[in-house]
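re: ur question from yesterday

yeah so i grabbed the chain u mentioned. its 156 aa long if i counted rite. heres the sequnce exactly as i have it in my notes:
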Amino acid sequence: MALSISYLDETSEVQAEELDLIKQLLNKAAEYENLSGEIEVSIMFVDNEKIRKINKQYRNMDKPTDVISFALEEQVEGEVEIVGVTLPRILGDIVISIPKAKQQAKDYNHSYRRELGFLALHGFLHLLGYDHGTEKEEQMMFQRQKEILEKHGLTR
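ran it thru and got these structure tokens back, copy pasting raw so excuse formatting
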């Protein structure tokens, strides 16, 4: 399994060691989820205004949020499947608000590194099909997040 992560930091605030943390965490998550082959994910770090605009455009919610995921593997009706060609598996895009991550780290009384890792993992699991629309889905997703974060030493 080879996970390729492309980053775009519009805030110029994310440090190299934080990018490395995310890379390690998502690679571990991919292993735990038994992913194989070449996999691609992009992560964009933005401010509250940018994520508010994205949230309004795509979720009709006019307020900043902490993380939004855009899964590319959701098949659309009428979409033609490509066969006979080996292409990387492109999971999608994750958008993280750095100001929200910093504020939530303070609010939840844990480190910024833990919050940033949590948000990246949360977005990644959404790309893999996890959701929290129902109580059962939320329990499954949050339990998986907790297991992976704890295995990586990112506890509250």
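noticed a couple things. Helices lie at 16-32, 48-59, 98-107, 112-127, 135-151. also The two ends are 29 Å apart (CA to CA).
anyway ttyl
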